[in-house]
Amino acid sequence: MRINHNITSLNTYRQLSTNNENTSKSIEKLSSGLRINRAGDDAAGLAISEKMRGQIRGLDQASRNSQDAISMIQTAEGALNETHSILQRMRELAVQSSTDTNTADDRSKIQSEVDQLAKEITRISNTTEFNTQNLLAGGLNDTFHIGANAGQSIGLAVNAMDAFSLGVAANVNVAGAFNASTTGLTAAGVTNAGLGRGLVADTYKIVVTANASTATQTAGQAATFTGANAFTGARNESATFKVTAVNVGNQATAAQVSTDGGTTWTAVNTTQVAGGGEFVYKGVTVQLTATTAVGNQVSVDFAAKNNTLQLQTSGAVNIGSAATVYSDMQDVTIGNAATAQTMKISSSSFGSLGGAATATQVVNAQASSAATTNAGTVTAQAVAQAGVDVSTQSSANTAITTVDSAIKKVSEERSKLGAYQNRLEHTIANLNTSSENLTASESRVRDVDMAKEVMNQTKNNILAQAAQAMLAQANQQPQGVLQLLRG
Predict the structure, then answer these.
(1) What are the residues facing 284 on neighbouring strands?
(2) CB burial class (10 A; 0-12, 13-18, 19+) of residue 121?
(3) By mean pLDDT, which of 107-121, 340-354, 371-385 is the weakest?
(4) In the chain, what's the furthest Cα-to-Cα distance?
(5) Taking Cα atoms as reference points, which of 183, 187, 154 lies closest to residue 69?
(6) Would you state the pLDDT for residue 39?
(7) 106 and 88 within one domain
(8) Full residue range of the structural domain in which residue 389 is found
């Protein structure tokens, strides 16, 4: 028997300490609900759980991002719904003005309403915003992050939906990024100008020179032309004509025209005159005679009216080379990109910039704008001055087709936005499902099984109490030495 080292007591104490520690851990798990409260509980499980948590929180945020994207799309689509309503009213007015039961005064009143409607379309385009971002001015090109990881995104670009871009504005004057004053160019104006990013502070001039149009005949069979300067086509064009019917004297009584080298043909109205058949094609009088048989063809080159644009400093120093524009061009950039002095002009009315031999548009460069794209280019805020022309029977009739085209553009844009919204709704459903399933998986790694842990805690508690009782017994064993000392 030994009294300096009570081995039984030491062993019992060690077991008690272990049981107390296990009981403490069980109570910690039961109170927190977590199986892993520190890395020491399960090092590998902690790493896996944290990675899953990152994915779960990323999925939840991506779902919120998608909801925000839907809200943005709904804002844009709601504005276009009103644009649609305005265009339908414009079409109704164009149809009304197309009948000659209206007097000139009646059409003037109709034109006034059309002008105001065009201005409202442009105002809607310029002021429709989401979180301060302009949605319909043509500069929106956003990326929506719809996943938990890098690169999981989709892009959405929205076209300009102002009256000019839709083709229902008669002319547009520069505003927003420019303070414009016009000299000798009051009717046409420089349309929807955009300020180059690095354009330095100065007063710039856009010099517009109108060129006379011509129509010349190439080698062909029996063709005579009058009105050489009457062609008003949008671009240089080569047209082919052929006779399709003749009378007994071989005079052409019907003809067709092709602008694609004879692939497709369109009938033209022919008036029989001395020596053949005559018709007017885009302002040029064409005379054809069937010299041998039906089907003779002749090709004619037309030179379209065009204008030359030149950007100058206030001192009339040219910036870059001049650019020739036609009325069917969507845009043209003038200036010098190397010095960051460029100006983008967007227009479908370049053909109307003529009239005077030379006209000057004075533009004061500014530093701000209503619409800024992600790339950093600045676009001026267009202001419609007048709507599509419905002042005459013929112009109103043409306006019906013009407005139909605008309605189609808005419909296409709304359809695209609706498709994106539907796509994002499916995205949200998928993200929420993924988040739910991943949360369940993370729970199995991180959370404690309460029933099992209660069982462990009960076991450890009983063992701790038993160890305490045994420790008391072990501490009594050295008392036997006293019996020996008494003897």
Answers:
(1) 281
(2) buried
(3) 371-385
(4) 164
(5) 154
(6) 86
(7) yes
(8) 34-174+385-447
Helices 43-97 & 393-446, crossing angle to 10 degrees?
170
Q: 72 and 424 in contact (C-beta within 8 Å)?
A: no
What does the alpha-carbon distance between residue 41 and residue 211 come to, in Å, rounded to a whole number?
86
Q: Which helix (H) or strand (E) holds 40?
A: none
State the DSSP H helix or E strand holding residue 162, giving kind and residue range, or none if neither: none
**pLDDT tens-digit series, residues 164-206:** 788 887 643 333 222 223 222 222 333 333 333 233 445 566 6
How many domains does the chain fold into? 4
CA–CA dist 180, 18 (Å, integer):
87
Task: Look at residues 369, 371, 342, 386 and name the one whose alpha carbon lies nearest to residue 173.
Answer: 386
- Least Cα distance to 145 among 68, 36, 211 occurs for 68
Which amino acid is present at 352? S
First to last CA, the chain: 16
> What amino acid occupies position 138?
G
User: Does 228 map to a domain?
Assistant: yes
Shared-domain flag, residues 283 and 352:
no
| Residue 348 lies inside a defined structural domain of this protein | yes
Q: Rg (Cα) of the chain, in Å, rounded?
A: 42
DSSP 145: E
β-partners of residue 334 are 343
- In sequence order, which ranges of 381-449 are alpha helices (DSSP H)? 393-446
Note whether 392 and 199 are within 8 A (CB).
no
User: What phi-psi label fits residue 471: left (phi over 0), alpha (psi between -120 and 50 degrees) or beta?
Assistant: alpha
Do 129 and 205 have their domain in common?
Answer: no
The token pair that represents 53 in the structure block: 């948590």
- Distance set, CA 484 to CA 478, 480, 481, 487 (Å): 11, 7, 5, 5
- At CB < 8 A and 24+ separation, what contacts does 16-21 make? 16/464, 16/467, 16/468, 16/471, 19/460, 19/463, 19/464, 19/467, 20/464
Same domain assignment for residues 81 and 27: no
Q: Where are the alpha helices (DSSP H) in 131-204?
A: 163-166
Task: Indicate the angle between helix axes 450-476 and 7-32, nearest 10 degrees.
Answer: 160
CATH of the domain at 55: 1.20.1330.10
Distance CA 216, CA 292 (A): 24
Q: Are 334 and 311 in contact (CB under 8 A)?
A: yes
Q: Taking Cα atoms as reference points, which of 352, 390, 353 lies closest to residue 117? A: 390
Which residues 6+ apart lie within 8 Å of 69 measured at CB?
144, 146, 156, 420, 424
d(CA 312, CA 335): 8
* Beta-bridge partners for 238: 301
Q: What is the pLDDT of residues 444-474, one digit of tens each?
A: 998 888 888 898 889 988 988 898 898 888 8
User: How far is 328 from 306, CA to CA, in rounded Å?
Assistant: 10
Note the Cα 273 to chain centre separation in Å. 55
